[in-house]
Every structure is written in C-alpha cells, then in structure tokens.
Design a protein that fits this description.
Order of helices and strands: HHEEEEEH
Number of domains: 1
Shape: elongated
Number of strands: 5
Radius of gyration: 19 Å
Strand order of the largest sheet: 1-2-5
Length: about 90
C-alpha cells in the first residue's frame, strides 16, 4: 500500500474527502518528523513508538577498494511496534 492508497482507504473509512484525508495525513507525518528532529519520541497507544536513536561513529570498509573509511555518528529514526500491533499482524 502506498500513500495514495492509504489516503483513499482512510477517506472512505472515515467518510471525509480524499483532500481532507491527505491534509490530515501530511500534518500527522510532519508533526512526527518535527518531534523526532527535536529529539522527542512519539508514542501512539496500540500502534507503537517512533523515536530517534543515536548511531555511534564506526569504521567501515569500501567493498570495491577494500579501503577503510570513517562513518560519522548520526541519529536515525526508529519504530518499535506495540504488542497489540504485533498480535494483529501475527494472526
């Protein structure tokens, strides 16, 4: 399912227009993105937790030249599914 299909299904299930569903989805995704970039975590009960995790600097290797390279430390988004979501998917 892609974003367009998600918007169509959400609009149909909630009885709103696709335009309103798209606006809501974009606002929700923008809000989650902003919270993660500020270092906050977003917890949606029954769905899961979005958070930014730190990755330490490390040494990597270029597979073509076998040369070692330094990979800098970064923050990366992570998602941890709730038990309810895991159970729903497992059925």
């Amino acid at each position: 399912m892609n974003k367009t299909e998600l918007i169509a299904v959400a609009a149909e299930k909630s009885g709103i227009t696709k335009k309103d569903a798209e606006r809501f989805l974009n606002a929700a995704l923008d809000t989650i993105t902003a919270a993660l970039s500020e270092g906050d975590r977003v917890q949606l009960s029954g769905f899961g937790i979005f958070e930014a995790k730190a990755r330490e600097a490390r040494v990597g290797r270029n597979p073509r030249t076998k040369e070692t390279i330094e990979i800098p430390a970064t923050r990366t988004p992570a998602f941890k599914a709730s038990k309810a979501l895991k159970d729903a998917v497992a059925k």
